[in-house]
Predict the structure.
Amino acid sequence: ARTEELQRALSSQETLVAELAELSVRDPLTGLHNRRHADDEIPRLVASAERHGQSLALAMADLDHFKVINDAHSYSVGDEVLRAFARILSQNARATDLVVRYGGEEFLLVMPQTTLEHALVVCERLRRAVSEHEWGAIVPGLRVTVSVGVASTVQSAGLVTLVSSADSALHQAKRGGRDRVVATPGSSAPVPNG
């Protein structure tokens, strides 16, 4: 009886440790993986792509004028926008993709075995889905858009350059008027009408 009791306690402890490990790599607000997980997983994905001669694309997405949403409506509205965006992002990702809340209103979509051209198609579909989402269900009249920067391992050498390239493309999208997808080095997806 004592052995069974100890086995149950050990099993319960192992379950708790596994749950805590999962919580440490998840963003509590959106349920997506967090930056800590990305920092561990992205180098592995990049190394695997390089080792197998495969392409890997990384998209950095940032909600446009998110501070205005928080300031005009409240942080709870901002939180609901983040949760809704996380759902839209997850719906536009494949099971093999890594979807991450990188920080604040910034998200990563890491797409293994994906060319830059295909990543642009995926990101443009994401941009449209965000633009067309019924944000007014959260607050009447609310409009949310996203800017996305995309880079691939074919264009950049190594992890630091990959993330830096996606970040540079994101800043180019922001400078170009927001609500758009831009890839390094300077090519862009179709710009939305209006």
